Amino acid sequence: MKDLLTLPLRQRLELVQTLWVSIAAEQMGSELTEADRQLIDQLLESFRADGDPGLDGDAALDAIEQSL
């Protein structure tokens, strides 16, 4: 684990993304509770009302790298 922290930032971010995708893939079969669905609907409605799409992936990575 300690060796992973010595990887360059871009490689660590790629590793995180790979791990996240693998976790999400395992969760695909999980059922959402009604409370989960309502929360997701509320968050999605808030996101759409805001009108700010945020940053695309490359811009987000660039911003992270520049902040370090």
Layout of secondary structure:
Blueprint lengths: L8 H19 L6 H17 L6 H11 L1
Structure described in brief:
69% of the residues lie in helices and 0% in strands.
Distance between the termini: 21 Å
Oligomeric state as shown: single chain
- Mean pLDDT value: 87
Broad shape: flat
Number of domains: 1
- Which series of helices and strands comes N to C? HHH
Task: Sketch the major β-sheet.
Answer: none
Give me the secondary-structure category.
mainly alpha
What's the helical proportion of residues? 55-70%
Uncertain spans, ≥5 residues at pLDDT below 50?
A: none
Q: Helix count? A: 3
Which band does the percent of strand residues land in? Answer: under 5%
**Extended strand count:** 0
Rg, Cα atoms, Å = 16 Å
Structure, explained:
The chain has helices at 9-27, 34-50, 57-67. It is an all-alpha fold. The two termini are 21 Å apart. 69% of the residues lie in helices and 0% in strands.
Please describe the structure with a list of short key phrases separated by commas or semicolons.
68 residues, mainly alpha, 69% helix, 0% strand, flat
